[in-house]
Structure of MPN domain-containing protein:
Amino acid sequence: MSQYSVSALAYFKILFHAAKHPHSSVNGVLLGKVERSGKINIIDAIPLLHHWTSLSPMMEIGLDLAGQHAQSAGLDLVGYYQACERIDDTSLAPVGEKIAENLRDGFKNAIALVIDGEKLGSGDVALVPYLPQGTVWRPCSGETTAFSTGSNFQLTSPDLPRRALAYVSEGRHESFGDFDDHLEDVTIDWLRNIACIPSDI
Protein backbone atom coordinates (compact mmCIF):
# COMPACT_ATOMS: atom_id res chain seq x y z
CA MET A 1 0.00 0.00 0.00
CA SER A 2 1.21 3.51 -0.81
CA GLN A 3 1.89 6.10 1.87
CA TYR A 4 -0.11 9.34 1.90
CA SER A 5 0.72 12.64 3.57
CA VAL A 6 -1.86 15.43 3.93
CA SER A 7 -0.50 18.99 4.08
CA ALA A 8 -1.79 21.78 6.29
CA LEU A 9 -3.18 23.62 3.26
CA ALA A 10 -5.19 20.61 2.04
CA TYR A 11 -6.38 19.69 5.54
CA PHE A 12 -7.55 23.19 6.43
CA LYS A 13 -9.43 23.58 3.15
CA ILE A 14 -11.24 20.27 3.60
CA LEU A 15 -12.32 21.20 7.12
CA PHE A 16 -13.20 24.79 6.20
CA HIS A 17 -15.49 23.47 3.46
CA ALA A 18 -17.31 21.18 5.90
CA ALA A 19 -17.53 23.93 8.53
CA LYS A 20 -18.92 26.45 6.03
CA HIS A 21 -21.79 24.10 5.10
CA PRO A 22 -22.41 21.93 8.20
CA HIS A 23 -25.88 20.80 7.11
CA SER A 24 -25.00 19.95 3.51
CA SER A 25 -22.99 17.35 1.68
CA VAL A 26 -19.79 18.89 0.36
CA ASN A 27 -17.14 17.54 -1.97
CA GLY A 28 -13.92 18.44 -3.71
CA VAL A 29 -10.71 17.09 -5.18
CA LEU A 30 -7.21 16.60 -3.82
CA LEU A 31 -4.09 17.84 -5.59
CA GLY A 32 -0.65 16.41 -5.06
CA LYS A 33 2.41 14.69 -6.42
CA VAL A 34 4.45 11.56 -5.87
CA GLU A 35 7.88 11.71 -4.23
CA ARG A 36 10.76 9.58 -5.48
CA SER A 37 10.16 7.32 -2.48
CA GLY A 38 6.65 6.65 -3.77
CA LYS A 39 4.93 8.60 -1.01
CA ILE A 40 1.94 10.61 -2.24
CA ASN A 41 1.90 14.18 -0.93
CA ILE A 42 -1.58 15.70 -0.86
CA ILE A 43 -0.61 19.34 -1.21
CA ASP A 44 -3.86 21.19 -1.88
CA ALA A 45 -7.63 20.73 -2.10
CA ILE A 46 -10.14 22.36 -4.41
CA PRO A 47 -13.73 22.57 -3.13
CA LEU A 48 -16.39 21.75 -5.70
CA LEU A 49 -19.99 21.70 -4.53
CA HIS A 50 -22.40 21.94 -1.62
CA HIS A 51 -25.69 22.28 -3.53
CA TRP A 52 -25.54 19.89 -6.46
CA THR A 53 -23.26 17.09 -5.28
CA SER A 54 -24.61 14.62 -7.84
CA LEU A 55 -23.04 13.87 -11.20
CA SER A 56 -24.31 17.00 -12.88
CA PRO A 57 -23.02 19.28 -15.64
CA MET A 58 -21.81 21.63 -12.88
CA MET A 59 -19.80 18.80 -11.33
CA GLU A 60 -18.22 17.96 -14.69
CA ILE A 61 -17.32 21.60 -15.35
CA GLY A 62 -15.88 21.99 -11.85
CA LEU A 63 -13.79 18.84 -12.21
CA ASP A 64 -12.49 19.99 -15.58
CA LEU A 65 -11.49 23.42 -14.24
CA ALA A 66 -9.89 21.87 -11.16
CA GLY A 67 -7.89 19.53 -13.42
CA GLN A 68 -6.67 22.46 -15.51
CA HIS A 69 -5.68 24.34 -12.34
CA ALA A 70 -3.78 21.32 -11.01
CA GLN A 71 -1.93 20.92 -14.29
CA SER A 72 -0.94 24.61 -14.34
CA ALA A 73 0.46 24.19 -10.82
CA GLY A 74 2.45 21.10 -11.80
CA LEU A 75 0.25 18.82 -9.68
CA ASP A 76 -1.97 15.81 -10.28
CA LEU A 77 -5.54 15.18 -9.21
CA VAL A 78 -4.73 12.50 -6.64
CA GLY A 79 -8.06 12.06 -4.92
CA TYR A 80 -11.51 13.13 -3.85
CA TYR A 81 -13.00 14.27 -0.54
CA GLN A 82 -16.51 14.56 0.81
CA ALA A 83 -18.56 15.22 3.91
CA CYS A 84 -22.00 13.64 4.14
CA GLU A 85 -25.19 15.46 5.07
CA ARG A 86 -25.64 13.34 8.20
CA ILE A 87 -23.01 13.87 10.87
CA ASP A 88 -22.80 10.13 11.65
CA ASP A 89 -22.37 9.05 8.02
CA THR A 90 -18.83 8.23 6.90
CA SER A 91 -19.74 6.21 3.83
CA LEU A 92 -18.36 7.09 0.43
CA ALA A 93 -21.41 8.02 -1.62
CA PRO A 94 -21.93 6.33 -5.02
CA VAL A 95 -21.15 9.66 -6.69
CA GLY A 96 -17.91 9.82 -4.72
CA GLU A 97 -16.99 6.30 -5.78
CA LYS A 98 -17.59 7.16 -9.40
CA ILE A 99 -15.52 10.35 -9.26
CA ALA A 100 -12.71 8.63 -7.34
CA GLU A 101 -12.72 5.81 -9.88
CA ASN A 102 -12.54 8.33 -12.73
CA LEU A 103 -9.60 10.06 -11.02
CA ARG A 104 -7.94 6.68 -10.71
CA ASP A 105 -7.88 6.45 -14.51
CA GLY A 106 -5.42 9.36 -14.49
CA PHE A 107 -3.68 8.59 -11.18
CA LYS A 108 -3.51 4.90 -10.25
CA ASN A 109 -3.05 5.51 -6.50
CA ALA A 110 -6.01 7.86 -6.12
CA ILE A 111 -7.54 8.10 -2.66
CA ALA A 112 -10.86 9.27 -1.24
CA LEU A 113 -11.19 10.99 2.15
CA VAL A 114 -14.53 11.13 3.98
CA ILE A 115 -14.98 13.57 6.85
CA ASP A 116 -16.14 12.01 10.11
CA GLY A 117 -18.58 14.66 11.35
CA GLU A 118 -18.83 13.14 14.82
CA LYS A 119 -15.08 13.62 15.38
CA LEU A 120 -14.84 17.17 14.04
CA GLY A 121 -13.78 19.53 16.80
CA SER A 122 -12.57 16.68 19.04
CA GLY A 123 -8.89 17.04 18.22
CA ASP A 124 -9.11 13.90 16.10
CA VAL A 125 -8.02 14.05 12.45
CA ALA A 126 -11.66 13.21 11.54
CA LEU A 127 -10.81 11.81 8.10
CA VAL A 128 -11.63 8.28 6.91
CA PRO A 129 -9.44 7.19 3.98
CA TYR A 130 -10.92 4.97 1.26
CA LEU A 131 -8.96 2.98 -1.30
CA PRO A 132 -10.20 0.69 -4.06
CA GLN A 133 -10.37 -3.06 -3.63
CA GLY A 134 -11.01 -4.17 -7.16
CA THR A 135 -13.80 -1.91 -8.37
CA VAL A 136 -15.23 -1.28 -4.88
CA TRP A 137 -13.95 1.49 -2.63
CA ARG A 138 -13.63 0.53 1.04
CA PRO A 139 -12.48 2.32 4.20
CA CYS A 140 -8.89 1.46 5.03
CA SER A 141 -8.60 -0.80 8.01
CA GLY A 142 -5.86 -2.94 9.42
CA GLU A 143 -3.54 -3.26 12.36
CA THR A 144 -2.89 0.49 12.51
CA THR A 145 -5.57 3.17 12.73
CA ALA A 146 -5.38 5.74 9.93
CA PHE A 147 -3.40 8.86 10.86
CA SER A 148 -1.90 7.24 13.97
CA THR A 149 1.80 6.50 14.47
CA GLY A 150 2.97 3.95 11.93
CA SER A 151 -0.03 4.40 9.65
CA ASN A 152 0.31 4.79 5.89
CA PHE A 153 -1.85 7.92 6.25
CA GLN A 154 -0.30 10.93 7.99
CA LEU A 155 -0.74 14.66 8.45
CA THR A 156 2.38 16.76 7.86
CA SER A 157 2.02 17.96 11.47
CA PRO A 158 0.10 16.36 14.35
CA ASP A 159 -1.25 19.72 15.55
CA LEU A 160 -3.32 20.38 12.40
CA PRO A 161 -6.69 19.33 13.93
CA ARG A 162 -6.15 21.72 16.87
CA ARG A 163 -5.11 24.56 14.58
CA ALA A 164 -8.04 23.96 12.21
CA LEU A 165 -10.47 24.13 15.12
CA ALA A 166 -8.92 27.41 16.28
CA TYR A 167 -9.23 28.90 12.78
CA VAL A 168 -12.87 27.83 12.53
CA SER A 169 -13.52 29.37 15.96
CA GLU A 170 -12.10 32.63 14.55
CA GLY A 171 -14.58 32.38 11.66
CA ARG A 172 -11.90 32.01 9.01
CA HIS A 173 -14.03 29.45 7.15
CA GLU A 174 -16.74 32.05 6.52
CA SER A 175 -14.72 33.51 3.64
CA PHE A 176 -14.14 30.07 2.10
CA GLY A 177 -15.80 29.47 -1.28
CA ASP A 178 -16.45 26.49 -3.52
CA PHE A 179 -17.46 26.21 -7.18
CA ASP A 180 -21.15 26.53 -6.23
CA ASP A 181 -20.35 29.84 -4.50
CA HIS A 182 -18.35 30.98 -7.53
CA LEU A 183 -21.33 30.34 -9.81
CA GLU A 184 -23.34 32.77 -7.66
CA ASP A 185 -20.52 35.30 -7.27
CA VAL A 186 -17.73 35.12 -9.85
CA THR A 187 -15.36 37.16 -7.65
CA ILE A 188 -15.00 34.17 -5.30
CA ASP A 189 -11.60 32.53 -5.86
CA TRP A 190 -12.70 28.92 -5.32
CA LEU A 191 -9.60 27.45 -6.94
CA ARG A 192 -7.16 29.01 -4.46
CA ASN A 193 -9.19 30.50 -1.55
CA ILE A 194 -6.27 32.71 -0.61
CA ALA A 195 -8.45 35.01 1.52
CA CYS A 196 -9.04 32.40 4.22
CA ILE A 197 -5.68 30.62 4.22
CA PRO A 198 -3.56 31.28 7.33
CA SER A 199 -0.31 33.11 6.60
CA ASP A 200 1.75 30.65 8.64
CA ILE A 201 1.38 27.70 6.26
About this structure: Strands lie at 4-6, 26-34, 40-49, 76-83, 111-115, 127-133, 136-139, 153-155.
